[in-house]
Amino acid sequence: MHEKLFRIDATYQQYEWGKMGSSSAVAQYAAHSDKNVKIDDTKPYAELWMGTHLKGPCTTRPGNELLNDVIAKDPTTMLGKDIIEKFQSKSELPFLFKVLSIKKVLSIQAHPDKKLARILHAQDPKNYPDDNHKPEMAIAVTDFEGFCGFKPLEEIAEELSRLPEFRKLVGEDVAERFVKGIKANAVEGSKDDVANRKLLQELFGKVMSASDEAVAEQGAALIERAKRSPADFTQCDLPELLVRLNDQFPGDVGLYCGGLLLNHCRLKAGEAIFLKAKDPHAYISGDIMECMAASDNVVRAGFTPKFKDVENLVEMLTYNYGTVDDQKMKPEGFERSSGAGESILYDPPIEEFAVLETTFKKSTGVRHFEPLKGPSILITTKGHGQVSTEGTKLQAEPGFVFFIAPNTAIDLEANDQDFTTYRAFVEAN
Question: What whole-number distance in Å separates Cα of residue 96 and Cα of residue 83?
């Protein structure tokens, strides 16, 4: 029988949008946790994966045993009977926990819900490797910016009225239909709201189906306008953003489907957003903790050389629209902990995961956590301390990752006020 608290080694992914070499938190964590990892400053380090997903499962330290195999030997102890029954697995966690270090914009993307994921996986397992949905939450560790959800429709209508390049790309008839047809203050689910979503779908579909030649031509004109006449844009930060994104992906359709249609989101450290299935988003820059249902399904729209499934994307989106604040998480206190430091709970409206952030900014000492009803993974991101349970006490340093079995009380002891941890967990309530 394995211990109920033990260290694991995460895996890292070197996608080209990641921060380079030792400037990446992902590289720093991987190398500090595993001395065999040698950072190559000529290569990007994008994601640190903590979980049991087959594309990058964790291994035990010491022993180098797959976490999946450890769980499979004693699933009731490692997952809990209720979690096994709920998620129908005796070897895998229902969530995937990550650190992301972002230098270059990720692809504009959305993730299918469970029903669509099963269909896409059956039809095209190469591009859709999982049959599961992928709702996700991002918590900013440093200042972060991204795209999240469609803008309020009135803002999009004003952009169509002010930017001739936008109208030319979608056509005057579609632009006019959108500007004149949208209904302000529509109640969600009402006839007006349904009509608004259909207009938004038509507009988005026109952008995504525009020819490469039209996108390149109108994109070049749009960037010229952003440089010479920034006052033509409705948002003061939009011209600079478009120019910056165009430097990364010249003449890409993402300038329109992202820059002009989606909310530009800025988060300070500690702020979080929740991204539901079928809602478009993209990360632009910063370092984040990300947690999601255990899936790697992505339907891409722009800012990517990878496979773009325009037909499925246009058809699948919810076409929710609104402000960034609609998608921000409201952190809560965590009553099942006590002592020094502070714990904040980020609890999205889904079953697969929640995340606890624990800091000791005011004083060092010990914070106690009552047992959780499911498994969890904890990572130290700053400072030094220890994580312990009855009979086991382990050093916790930046990049050190731990698995904690269900029904296991733990203590976090801070050696300094920088000591910071994030803990992803699941419970079958």
Answer: 15
Two domains, one topology: 9-145 and 332-425: yes
> pLDDT tens digit string along 328-345?
998 999 999 999 999 999
Q: What is the spatial distance between Cα 396 and Cα 400, in angstroms, rounded to a whole number?
A: 6
Compute CA 328 distance to the chain's CA centroid, rounded to the nearest angstrom.
13
Query: Starting from the edge strand earliest in sequence, which strands make up the sheet with 332-333, in order?
Result: 59-61, 5-9, 401-404, 376-382, 420-425, 354-359, 342-346, 332-333
Query: How far is residue 401 CA from its own chain's centroid?
Result: 19
Q: What is the CATH number of domain 332-425?
A: 2.60.120.10
Residue 1 has pLDDT above 60, yes or no: no
Residues contacting 162, CB < 8 A, separation 6+ = 232, 233, 234
Tell me the CATH architecture of domain 147-263+302-327: Orthogonal Bundle (1.10)
pTM score, whole prediction: 0.92
Q: Where are the domains of the chain?
A: 9-145, 147-263+302-327, 332-425
User: For the chain, how big is the Rg over CA atoms in Å?
Assistant: 23
Tokens coding 103: 């230098």
Residues 6+ away with beta carbon under 8 Å from 311: none
Q: Which residues are catalytic?
A: 300
Task: Return binding residues for Zn(2+).
Answer: 109, 111, 136, 281
